[in-house]
Each structure stands twice: as structure tokens, then as C-alpha cells.
Write a structure and sequence with these properties.
about 50% helix; mainly alpha; about 80 residues
Length: about 80
């Protein structure tokens, strides 16, 4: 086990995305921070973060929370207050 120093951060996430992440973390018995760390570390190595069973669970959670965003939406989102 690697010893690390964690810091508190204030990140803003799209509401439905956060709901799916929180629900997934809960179902995997992880904290939200641990889940995000795992996703990022896998991404940094170009590896998939989830297996087939977890991907199926994510699809179900996306439907439950109405998350329709995809990777194609990344870096192309505007805050609700910014839209005229």
C-alpha cells in the first residue's frame, strides 16, 4: 500500500455527473475522492478505469439520474448562467 498526502479541493462538476459518481462510489464502497483518483490514474496511463460490469452499472445510474452527456460534450459545456 502506497502512503499519500491528500488535500481538500473545491471542484465544480455538472450536477447529474456528480450524482452518478457519488452513487457509483457508494456502490463500490469507495469515497468519491478514491473513485476520482482511480479514474484519473487509469486515464493518465491510457487504461480503462472500469470493467464491463461496472460500465453496465454506470449506464443504469446515468438513466436513473438523467445523465445524457457523453465524451463528445467534454470541454463544450456552458454554465446555465452563461447561456443567453
Amino acid at each position: 500500500m502506497e502512503t499519500v498526502e491528500r488535500v481538500q479541493t473545491g471542484v465544480r462538476l455538472e450536477r447529474r455527473t456528480l450524482k452518478v459518481l457519488k452513487a457509483l462510489a457508494e456502490s463500490l464502497d469507495l469515497s468519491l475522492g478514491e473513485l476520482l483518483e482511480g479514474i484519473v490514474l487509469h486515464a493518465f496511463e491510457g487504461k480503462p478505469a472500469f470493467g464491463e460490469a461496472t460500465l453496465r452499472q454506470i449506464e443504469l445510474l446515468k438513466r436513473v439520474y438523467g445523465l445524457t452527456l457523453t465524451a463528445a460534450n467534454a470541454h463544450r459545456l456552458a454554465e446555465a448562467d452563461d447561456v443567453s
